[in-house]
Amino acid sequence: MFELRKLSADDGIDIYEMLQRIPGEENGLMNKANGLTYDEYKKWLTAKQKASEQQGIVDGWKVPSTTFWLYSDGVPVGFGSIRHFLTEALRKAGGHIGYGIAPGFRNKGYGKELLRLLLHEAKKIGIEKALVTVHSDNPASQAVAMANGGVITERTDDRVFIWIDTEKSVGIQE
Ligand SMILES: CC(C)(COP(=O)(O)OP(=O)(O)OC[C@H]1O[C@@H](n2cnc3c(N)ncnc32)[C@H](O)[C@@H]1OP(=O)(O)O)[C@@H](O)C(=O)NCCC(=O)NCCS
Questions:
Q1: What separation in Å is there between the alpha carbon of 43 and the centre of ligand 1?
Q2: pLDDT number for residue 49
Q3: Which of 134, 141, 161 is the pocket-test mutation for ligand 1 (most atoms within 8 Å of CB)?
Q4: CA–CA distance, 169 with 123 (Å, rounded to integer)
Q5: Ligand 1 pocket residues where CB is under 6 Å
Q6: Rounded to the nearest whole angstrom, what is the distance from the C-alpha of residue 50 to the centroid of ligand 1?
Q7: Residue spans per domain, the chain
Q8: In this predicted model, what pLDDT tens digit does every residue of 8-47 receive, in sequence order?
Q9: Residue nearest to atom 5 of ligand 1 (CA)
Q10: What number does CATH give the domain 2-124?
């Protein structure tokens, strides 16, 4: 059984250990908790929780962003973040939603399920069309986005731009 849980400052060792298994950067997906001590991780959680609650842009570029953990049968297996709105820079790289599954759990359908659940959350935040920007050499992520109703609107040398109607995505794979 899959469940999405919103990041909380009270998150504990299970999430910490999962984040140590996911690289600090992979295909543009950032995991800044990788390599932190447990105390540093707890402070990072607090900052991430604040980033979810912030109003408007902070420091000239940081938009509000909410992180969720994917649990499979009570075990954390991945994470995703939703940016509440886009800046011009995020339209070119970054998009609304980023997601990652811990190595060892990949290619079992978890990525597709994670994005499906994230799209539900994006809809609740008020995002009607969600942008996912995927590196051209990341076929697994492209497959995940397309399986969730994605439409490719642009390809550049290094990225594929995929938009997903959050209304239409509801119900896919259910
Ligand atoms: C992208 C990622 C989230 C996918 O997670 P996952 O759990 O493996 O995804 P799923 O099992 O649900 O689906 C993977 C799909 O990619 C396909 N795939 C995997 N590797 C592939 C490859 N090298 N070439 C073509 N297709 C590939 C699988 O066949 C599957 O599609 P199918 O079910 O239609 O056959 C995971 O690989 C990951 O965390 N990568 C690192 C971070 C990242 O790239 N995030 C995305 C940033 S935009």
A1: 31
A2: 97
A3: 141
A4: 10
A5: 26-29, 98-101, 106-112, 134, 138-141, 143-144
A6: 30
A7: 2-124
A8: 999 999 999 999 999 999 999 999 999 999 999 999 999 9
A9: 111
A10: 3.40.630.30
φ and ψ of 27, to 5 deg: 55, 35
> Tell me: the pLDDT tens digits for 106-133?
999 999 999 999 999 999 999 999 999 9
Instruction: Please state, in angstroms and as integers, the Cα–Cα distance from residue 26 to each residue in 58, 99, 101, following that order.
Output: 25, 10, 11
Reported pTM: 0.96
